[in-house]
Amino acid sequence: MNSFTRNLLLLASSTTVFIAVAAGSTYLVKYKPWGVPDVLREKYEAKVVAMEQRNELITSWESKDRPTISVRSFYDLGPRPDQSSERYTFSVKNNGHLPLTISHSRSSNGASFEFSDQTIQPDQEAIATVAWTSNATPGPFEFYSILESNDPLQKSFRITFRGRIKAKIMMPQTVSLPASNVGEVSQATIRLTSELWRSFEITDVKSKATLDWHASATDPTSKQHTSRVDLTLIKNHFEYGKHEEKITIVTKGDSGETIETPIVLKGRVNHPITFQGPALHITDGLDIGTIEAGQEQSFHLNCRVNGDQSREIAILDYEPKQLLAKIEKQSRAGNYRLSITVPPDCPLVIFNSTEQGFVKVGDPNDEHFSNWLPIHGVVAPPSK
Fold first, then answer.
1. Global pTM value
2. N or C: which end of the chain has fewer CB within 10 A?
């Protein structure tokens, strides 16, 4: 056998082995369902099996007479009183052709059940009554109950009950005061309501800061409320910036019971003085860059007073002292022109993130009524 024939036979044998291995592999590969990760594959396959078994069960009963339970899976119990014995009734119907038997299996909150008839004839219904004791905590609640029946397709049926425990006093958890200027008063009115007290009053508003308030009883606008009081909170601001504090509102019901409720009072006070100009950066201030001395150069900005515009504004301080700073009152109330000048004989001076330059502008008679303008730049001596 020559070498060409031997090589041809080897190639044919290799091709045959490759085809056999590939064909066998097609029987071994099990393609995963698209979008199902490995960690969820077991649950996915269990659901598929359960669905197949369910479909087989439905198919097996399609042509047979059976009892059929018909009941809602969710009931809204609405507002309920606290710490009271509660009852709620609903209907269970038999839409099948054979008698339906029902019973209560269990409930998540220990609720009990009564049935007007535990055997329901075809096309008839029974009244179910669930009884439970409501809790003392105001707000939403939820529990479920499991009913069992002889319906072959719904042997176990879950019903969810949701509602809300009425509150003796309700109010917002956070109150936002409108933005204001330094020295101005801001106020906000909130509404307090009760679902249990026929009337109530606000006896105190506790705050670490100075806070004025007044309250007035008004008629409820909702049938679920039994009484309502509007409370106005008033605060005078002496420092700028965002502020947030906890206050406590003390209410007293018609039965004499007193409840203290903490809430958050927050707001924002504008800077007493703001700077405006096309060369300004919102956080970095004025950046003059690198300039060469020898010729006078000036930078002009608008300086505006927020709030009491009758104040006289002046330059309180500035750095570096090699520069010149001047402020002039404009014709429009509360507006000033701020000028920062590099004199022609200015020596080498650097004012950056480590050697900060600034101009402080404000009321000379009130240290709190002021603002700082950062300045960045380099002044180099003239080149020869």
1. 0.63
2. C
